[in-house]
Design brief:
alpha/beta, Nucleotidyltransferase, domain 5, 2 domains, five-stranded mixed beta sheet, 9 helices, binds 5'-O-[(R)-(carboxyoxy)(hydroxy)phosphoryl]adenosine, binds zinc ion
């Protein structure tokens, strides 16, 4: 007999995007995202405003997701939501909604770690450019506004952090530099846009020296900001006259820093399957440098998996797919579970089923 397909609703609200998605098995039926424009003028996410907007947008996003999926809400088998890490106010809005939804429809509740979900988004049907699922074990590079990590992924829920940023995440550094250049939040996409015709070799900002597989972007960010400030004192038009070159140079150096760490991780672990995830992995230069690296290796076994852009930044589908994978393993959660803002490692978190 044919197995009944599983339908999961995924709810993401860890930062400033309200994401709701419905998936049927690994296929995305709908993926609704409400971005919060209000933070643009503040240069970063204001948690209090983000919570209020999640509250306003959540019901609309859920209604739209169900409508676009062309299903009846009674067909949903389970509700999955982001438990952490992230901003506690926004997380609480998503958690409260998901719990009520679960109780109202009398369906199971599944909780998701946001970092795991970024990686597991590669298991959405057709999510990555290779159009196939990465085999285990692989190395996950999660690069976003909140995280910069190299993770050894042995299985869906067996992950081990090999390296993390010691200070700012790569997205945070990009957003802060972008703000100085006069861009709205989030600045990463603007840096990419203005780098298009720039000379990437014009400004050789020095790379941070960090041992092992950890990262540091705070010093790099401060060096760039100080350099620009110094130049502005002599020439107030410095940014305007050099915008493309500054953007291209920053982007290139960041891409190189990320690649160099991943090369180290490959040597250390002997694993030659690399999976990129998180908002910063939408960046053209980063994608290019990793693709080039994989194509020009003597070791033809090296594979790099890159997501279609819509799955790189925060979205409900990554929460739904992670929920589905937990559903298949009966990893349900209690209605009394509460969100967490910080997360150190997967040691006590790993699920071995
Ligand atoms: O994964 P994400 O949506 O949220 C977090 O989990 O943090 O990542 C957001 C980050 C922001 O810092 C944003 O500037 C960056 O991803 N970002 C980019 C690009 N698109 C988004 N950075 C560089 N180039 C892009 N195209
Ligand atoms: Zn994220």
């Amino acid at each position: 007999m044919k197995k009944k397909p599983i339908i999961i609703i995924g709810i993401e609200s860890s930062c400033d995007d309200t994401g709701v998605s419905i998936i049927q098995n690994r296929n995305v039926l709908s993926n609704v995202i409400f971005n919060q424009e209000i933070h643009k003028k503040y240069g970063g996410v204001v948690p209090e405003l983000a919570s209020r907007l999640h509250d306003i947008n959540m019901t609309k996003a859920v209604q739209q997701a169900i409508f676009l999926a062309k299903i009846n809400r009674n067909q949903i088998d389970a509700v999955s939501f982001t438990l952490g890490p992230g901003l506690i106010g926004p997380l609480l809005v998503g958690a409260s909604f998901a719990k009520s939804f679960s109780m109202g429809l009398d369906i199971p509740l599944l909780t998701v770690n946001h970092i795991q979900a970024h990686i597991l988004s590669h298991f959405i049907q057709d999510a990555n450019l290779n159009n196939c699922y990465p085999k285990f074990p692989f190395l996950g590079l999660v690069i976003s506004g909140g995280h910069t990590q190299i993770i050894k992924v042995n299985d869906f829920f067996q992950m081990e952090i090999l390296g993390s940023t010691l200070d700012d995440s790569v997205g945070e550094a990009l957003d802060k530099i972008a703000r100085m250049l006069g861009f709205y939040y989030p600045g990463g996409p603007m840096i990419e846009y203005f780098s298009k015709n720039g000379n990437e070799k014009k400004f050789m900002f020095s790379k941070p020296i960090v041992s092992g597989l950890d990262f540091s972007f705070s010093g790099f960010k401060n060096n760039v900001l100080q350099y620009i400030n110094k130049k502005l004192k002599k020439n107030t038009l410095f940014i305007k006259q050099n915008l493309s070159d500054i953007c291209a140079s920053i982007q290139k150096i960041i891409a190189e820093i990320l690649l160099e760490k991943v090369q180290k991780a490959i040597i250390k672990t002997g694993i030659s399957r690399i999976v990129l995830a998180g908002g910063v992995s939408a960046n053209y230069e980063i994608r290019k440098i990793f693709m080039y690296f994989s194509k020009n290796q003597k070791n033809k076994k090296l594979e790099v998996f890159i997501l279609k852009k819509k799955y790189t930044t925060d979205n409900g589908a990554m929460i739904a797919i992670t929920g589905l994978l937990k559903y298949e393993r009966n990893l349900f959660d209690s209605i009394h579970i509460t969100p967490y803002s910080k997360f150190k490692n997967f040691k006590n978190y790993t699920v071995n089923k």
